[in-house]
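Recall that a protein's primary structure is simply its ordered list of amino acids. Everything else, from secondary elements to tertiary packing, is in principle encoded there. The following example makes that idea concrete.
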Amino acid sequence: MTTTIGEDGLARCPWATRDAEYRRYHDEEWGTPLHGDGPLFEKLCLEGFQAGLSWITILRRRPGFREAFSGFDASVLADWTEPQVELLLADTRIIRNRAKIEATLANARVLLDLQRDEGDGALDRLIWGFAPPAREDRPQSLEDIPAVTPESTALSKELRRRGFRFVGPTTVYALMQSAGLVDDHLAGCWRAGVSGEGAPA
């Protein structure tokens, strides 16, 4: 499937035309380079929650996730234990999956350990250290976009070695796409190759 022309006359990746929030996310966030331990930790957690679900499900609930998980502040989440897990399991604003909730809290502790050992920006440096070189040929259709790459497999392996959970190669590649380590906007999409400051007037 190739690009689709929206009501505003702009060509976009076809998945971005199904929903207004998807369109905003595509135009403003997806594929835009994301840096900082905090933003990348949130993205890593949300991609873990997305596993097995549609991303729009997570995107619509992201404000609720942020409230329920204290803004994904690792220094707060690292201290949460079973009472907080039980509260989260009753919170209809999020995906109520025990394994994913517990993984988020465990990942917060791993992040703090990583920062203690390697300083602020450690997660940013770790993730961006696996950014692949820019691809020579932009994908023409969704069928040209892989679900897993050698880089996502290697980053997944390293994250798991450090102790992170729910970071399989497919989940990690989705992170790499959304955080701008790769630019998988299709050929002809107005966002292809641009930084995403907003749609042209």
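The beta strands are 4-5, 11-12. Residues 40 and 124 are 7 Å apart (CA to CA).
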